[in-house]
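2024-03-11 09:14:02 DEBUG pipeline.ingest accepted 1 chain
2024-03-11 09:14:02 DEBUG pipeline.ingest length=132
2024-03-11 09:14:03 DEBUG pipeline.predict start
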Amino acid sequence: MTVLVGARDHERGREAERTLRDGDADARFVPLDVTDEESVAKAAAWVRAEYGHLDVQVNNAGIVRADGSALPSETTLATLREVYETNVFAVVAVTNAFLPLLLRAPAARIVNVSSEVGSMAVMTNPEGALFG
């Protein structure tokens, strides 16, 4: 399997590619900013031209942002928009862009990854690292 490493930061994307290759994986960096429609379209076009299909899409981009003490009452709409743009709308945009390639694969899969931020227990623990 070839792992396509999508990243908006070229240095970090190339480093991830190198790390995977050092572990004997077939990996290639693909420039991709999930919040930029043009970047998403270019990445999908590149995958189509290079491979013709996509077997597995892993949605793993996500951010955590807060204002002030991180209380909802102190979080600005601008911060919420930034979080939703990355964590919600980008998942839809990337999936829609790559869906034609997934449909060309014999048994395609979409994997949505979350972090501790998706855990109610972690997010409501006042002694946890996020409240530190």
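2024-03-11 09:14:41 DEBUG pipeline.report Residues 32-131 form a domain with the Rossmann fold fold (CATH 3.40.50.720).
2024-03-11 09:14:41 DEBUG pipeline.predict end
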